[in-house]
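Two quick folds needed for the group meeting slides. Do the first one here.
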Amino acid sequence: KKSIEPSILSDFLLYDTNELKLSTDNSTSLYSIYSSDDDKKKVETKFKNFFKFLPPKISKFQKNEKLLVFWVRKNCYFVLGEIDYEKFNQSFKNMSSITIQTGGWITFNLSGNSINLLLEKLISVDLDKLTSKTVIRTSINKTNCFVLCNSQFQNYKILCPISFYESMKSRLINLIRLIY
């Protein structure tokens, strides 16, 4: 088994083996957007004009160089990145609300060639179906969270409430130590 040495790099707390990397990131803003308008076409048009892509479908995310947006529930999305409030409010004109969620959530980044070994022990899902740009809402260590697949079997994000940071971090590190 390889040892895992924690080190602080910039805003990241990084745990690194040669096969897998784990870091936490709280430097990216997180927003929730809720659309009160049930007119799907109207919402899609406003969304595309503002974000430059259509709203993501259930269990999917869309991204560009500045933002990542994923479906949370009907008419509700999470956005990782920076949003201009003024432009948002002008674009959506009282049909949507935006709430800053940054302080309430933490992002764990997982990457490496052996990530599937960790995920198989962490979540009960067919990893072959967890493809790139896919999101699942699941429970890890008795904590509801989101798992985003950036690149299948290579790169994932786990978003969980910040109040569960220590228990999630311990669970992930203990599994990494078990595997490596």
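Then this one, please, same format:
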Amino acid sequence: LFSRFLVEPLGQMIRNMGQIAHGKLDLVVNKKGLREFSRVADSFELMIDQVKLRASELERLLDLDDSAILRFGRDGEAIYFNRVAMEVFGYQEDEIPDLDLGDLFSEAALGLMASGVAAETALPDAPLSLQLDCRHKSGAWFTCDAVINPSVARSGSGYTIVLSPVSAAEDVELSPYVA
């Protein structure tokens, strides 16, 4: 879904910008050149609108899932949480960019993820399944079954973590133990 709704439109936009940068479009400063530039600018604006629309559609699709879906960048920084993930962990959308793996998972879980993901990198079609000790915003801990998919994109590697289907934050049994 990420590829269809986000990567492909961005790839097309980058290819078009590359043509402009390498002078493959006739942009002579005359009426024809101005019309061509206007056409390219309009196309660029259309692509931006399409990317925004597709990103919005993708977000709506991910919010329909009853699993908590979390996306992290190469350095473990939080990139995306779907609605269920925000409910389960107790965070608001504007707090997500300030989070990283260490804020949400125990040290033991981080070690398992690091060793497991390193072993699975050679086989990206075989996601890593394990139980993770997770930390709620309140500091309480809970355990969830998780599937971790390491991924590599142009911007670098990262992780997509899908926690087992959870219908609402109340369904997660929080405990005061420290992992």
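Slide caption for protein two: Residues 119-123, 167-171, 175-179 have pLDDT under 50 and may be disordered.
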